[in-house]
Write the structure tokens for this entry.
Amino acid sequence: MGYVAGVDVGSTQTKAVILDEKRHVVARAVVDTGSNVARAADRVIEAALAQGSLSPSQLSYVVGTGYGRFRVGVGQEQITEISCHAKGIAHVNPAVRTVIDIGGQDAKAIRLGEDGAVADFVMNDKCAAGTGRFLANAAEVLQLGLDEIGPRSLNAARPVRLSTVCTVFVESDILSHLARGRTVENILAGVHRAVATRVVALARRVGIEPIVALTGGVARNIGMVEALEAQLNVRLFVASDAHFMGALGAALFAWERAQGRAFAVKDQ
Amino acid sequence: MVSEVPNTYQGAMHARQKDLMQDYQQALARSAAGDGPPAVYLLVSGNPVELIHAFGLLPVFPEIQALQRAVRHESLPLIQEAEARGYSTDNCAYVKTDIGAWYRYSRSPSPTVPPPGLLLANYVGCQVYWQWWEQLEDFSHAPLYLLDVPFSRSRDGLPTPDDIAYVVRQLRELIPILERLSGRRYDPDRLRQVLQLSRETEELWSRIKWLAARDPAPFDAYFDAATLMAPLYVLRGTAAGRDYFQTVWTELEARQKAGQGPLERENFRLVIDGPPPWPYLRAFRDMFARWGAVFVASTYSGVGGLWEFGFRHQPDDPLTTLATHMLTWNVPNQNLRQRYDLLSRYLREWHGEGLVIHAVKSCRLFSSGHGDMREYFAKTLKVPTLLIESDLADPRYFSPAQMRTRIDAFMESLISSRLGRDAIS
């Protein structure tokens, strides 16, 4: 059957995972999505193929996921990121029952059934509060890199309390704390707490059942992991490739299709 | 990937509806031109349209006018007109569509709709609605009658004798106003005849709704039922209305027996709470149709009246029966516990596999409590439940990509749980 791929076109980054016949990850790649969504999907596939020293003809099935899933030119099928994150995490750790996924523009909580299938899910509304965008804006105001804010937040002695979780108003909130002489670390800890509060409220709507996994790009932020753990009072399961979970799930669906296992209701 | 084609069934019922609604529009246009009976503006919720017909007056439902504008993509400029005059962005989009239209046309909301001879605020569960009617009073100088219908608050949801007496007394007060407007004396026998026709229509409508409990459902009890609501509210109590629903019943029953539904194939049977997003009606329908999902029951189709559980107008006691309908037998005047019971019955007796809750920004009455409703059905009753949000008339609150992701994920989860059950068995 050859190889299969999953492409997760997110608002900030586009990820691809290629699996072999035994469902081993043979290549993965990530590119910035940018303004040309279709091009990002093409580029990430090219990068993943190059990494695995494969040619396009060796891919027998490709599934697209993420908000740009309909723009994956080589994709034979589109499956939502909710199903794909669930699929990916259930493969990596079948004991996970709750998935919190924080991406660039959205946050979602997914409850998994015993069989690893999606039992319930909720997503944030048309508001970027509690998403990666909120953290990115905060980093920008403080003139820090996204990879710096998490570790620095852990050094806070007295985290500030932000008056808003609004991604637009966070800037003036941060500036006012700076004006009052609060340290960058204390402000960053407040920023992470604010996101965690919002995300935990979302997760409570599906019911938080251990093991709880964190996926999506924000899972790479240690400050966010700790802020969530503090509020949930549980240890989070964070896979080493947590931000590839959607692409991995899409690739696993692609593998099932290549095996002739259909998802579509018509074929049941 | 599933991709069901919605069938484009057009039968005698559709042709007849077109004619009837055209006749009604023409009657409105004639009245607007000064030739015809005066218009009574009333609200859909538990409407007493029978009383209007008994006096030979013309019923006008501004909510229906507003939703028709939304379907035709005409609502946004009118909403913005109202907002420019100071109406809040949080205000109901039906109200703003209508108010914007009044600002545009000044004498009435449209050159082909007559100004009101009477503003009958027959539903007071929504405070924004009274204020809407007060604004219309200000525009039109027509008399306003606020019919205070107490909200359902007893444990069993049934009205108390005092509630009924209170509403009947107001209906008695209303009668001389209708006499003056129509120039006709109140004739209880005439009202009984109208109620008898209503009763026959209600019997047919109830049977039609129960058809959707069968497998397959011969029509979509949300999208198709919504198109039947205009004749149900405007023509209930007339012979033309009764005959029309006879046609609908005959046709849909035949389709059901032939195994024909609104889609090529019925893969999923769902129940839905909340009004449709009118400006995106087609797109919204397609998001479900492509999965082969049919709504077998909806609370929205019970806004004007709930007849599928046995209530019928009783011609013997005209005013009491009108009061009972307004107090109890319509979805908006029922309490949240009754709504839960109603949805549970729809899921059970209409064989729904999942529940979709469509919260709308415009209507707090319909949408407040939707978060709790989701919890109750998803966690307590373990029914797959999807909560989505947009608006009934304001297109700015409908985000197609986000809506589709949520609906697709929900349908995927229904499939996964079916596959899981199969794997277990």
Observations:
- The two ends of chain B are 25 Å apart (CA to CA).
- Chain B touches chain A at residues 1-2, 265, 267-268, 291-292, 371, 374-375, 378-379, 384-385, 387, 389, 399, 401-402, 405-406, 408-410, 412-413, 415-420, 422-424 (CB under 8 Å).
- Residues 12-424 of chain B form one domain.
- Chain B has one domain: 12-424.
